[in-house]
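Hi R.,

As promised on Friday, here is the backbone we talked about, encoded as structure tokens. Could you run it through your design pipeline when you get a chance and send me back a sequence?
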């Protein structure tokens, strides 16, 4: 249970840091956070959608 509490505390600290510094600072200076947490999962969803679309159209 302790690792879960530490992870929760880390998440809370991260969210407070984003609120203090602002989302703009994160997107500009810490771009990897934005890419890893938002763009990469979105890219996977986009690829799966177009793979399924092509499979349905050309089967």
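Update: got your reply. Pasting your designed sequence below so it's all in one thread:
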């Amino acid at each position: 249970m302790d690792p879960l509490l530490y992870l929760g505390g880390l998440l809370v600290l991260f969210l407070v840091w984003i609120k203090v510094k602002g989302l703009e600072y994160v997107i500009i200076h810490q771009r990897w956070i934005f890419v890893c947490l938002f763009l990469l999962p979105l890219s996977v969803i986009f690829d799966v959608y177009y793979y399924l679309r092509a499979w349905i159209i050309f089967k």
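One thing I noticed while checking it: Helices lie at 2-21, 23-29, 31-57.

Thanks again,
M.
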